[in-house]
Amino acid sequence: xxxxxxxxxxxxxxxxxxxxxxxxxxxxxxxxxxxxxxxxxxxxxxxxxxxxxxxxxxxxxxxxxxxxxxxxxxxxxxxxxxxxxxxxxxxxxxxxxxxxxxxxxxxxxxxxxxxxxxxxxxxxxxxxxxxxxxxxxxxxxxxxxxxxxxxxxxxxxxxxxxxxxxxxxxxxxxxxxxxxxxxxxxxxxxxxxxxxxxxxxxxxxxxxxxxxxxxxxxxxxxxxxxxxxxxxxxxxxxxxxxxxxxxxxxxxxxxxxxxxxxxxxxxxxxxxxxxxxxxxxxxxxxxxxxxxxxxxxxxxxxxxxxxxxxxxxxxxxxxxxxxxxxxxxxxxxxxxxxxxxxxxxxxxxxxxxxxxxxxxxxxxxxxxxxxxxxxxxxxxxxxxxxxxxxxxxxxxxxxxxxxxxxxxxxxxxxxxxxxxxxxxxxxxxxxxxxxxxxxxxxxxxxxxxxxxxxxxxxxxxxxxxxxxxxxxxxxxxxxxxxxxxxxxxxxxxxxxxxxxxxxxxxxxxxxxxxxxxxxxxxxxxxxxxxxxx
Length: 533
Prior knowledge:
Elements: H1 2-16, E1 34-41, H2 47-65, E2 70-78, H3 90-100, E3 106-109, H4 112-115, H5 119-131, E4 135-138, E5 143-144, H6 150-182, E6 194-197, E7 200-203, H7 205-219, H8 224-233, H9 246-253, E8 262-264, E9 267-269, E10 277-279, E11 287-289, H10 299-322, E12 331-333, E13 340-345, E14 348-353, H11 354-358, E15 368-369, H12 370-408, H13 411-435, H14 441-468, H15 472-486, H16 496-502, E16 503-508, E17 513-518, E18 523-527
């Protein structure tokens, strides 16, 4: 009986044990190839450097195509731009975007200095790539970021590269300073109305005529805003082929270069990278050189314009700063849709719905004190600053993802993607034929140069098309995030400038709540403290 009981108990225990499923270790399929990309960069747009640019493209096309276990994704190449900041390198940003989409496994780079000359940018991007599962191989230094210990070595090399850039910048700064002192300095860009002819500053006749008209209009009593309006109505492009604004007119009216003289070092660049430009408020000497180029206007006319500007500022400056009120034309009634008007009572101000003001029976929303609205905005700003930035960043990511998905199916983008793919395939085929000795070297170089040029053009067309279709909501959301990150921790008092940059309008929903409509379309409700009923 005991033996039977033992057998039965063992059987029962076995029946209660969970079922275990054995899983064999997964193996990477033999035919899966590593998706490899290359990043190249040259530092100037000179002919020699452009030849180097084409040579680098050929080198990486042959290298990647020559390995059976690799599959080339793309060759990302920036030409004719500085390497001190990745923000200005379009193809670098495109490469990072492709990595985030999971299209790349490995990136080949000639050296760390080609990847970044800024330690912070270098490490930040390498860390992000490691998190995405993408390793970077620096050929000259023999570093592969797939090794965990490589990051320290990378940081050291990147710091050396940054110091090298800072040293070069320091040498250039010293050179500029000596040329300013000797009066032979030549700026890299010309003021509107001038252009460079070799190393000589000459007048651009059409633009110079516009400059003369601006001074004539201003001295005859036309203000800067009206001048900009007239130029836009006539279809006159500004220096950047854009619309005219009062600020651009003011820049021309206050620029001494139109008298034929030059004031150098109005701004200066920081010694550390990434380089930042600041207005020179006495940190460095300025140099005033007389007669550096032909004048467009007389010095008498220029001085008259400066005196008139000072007179107008002293006469109208305070009035312009006082009006309009920050909330003017910003408030509407959520009950009847009417706009709000400002009224003053004793020493306080309040805002009233126009319909309510005419008849209480037409709209029940009572007037609201200006200070109550100011307080509501300050509370809203605190919540945005300390609680909403992660939400806004996620919103931005989602908007960009939606836009990218929409753009992927655009007929123009599809056509360009096919063109880019065809050109890349031709490049790889040519590299293979070269390795087999089936293509004459001269023909190979000429053909790869042409293919590289066409490929670059196709990528630029795609980027321009993507930029043209940019989502304004995403851009406004990014602006909103930037404003909040750079803004104060909290507001002791109402900040009219911040309010104007963040808020599109205010809707008074009831006697107890308002809705703030932000510039990016986001609407947030805030309670109000009533002092007027």
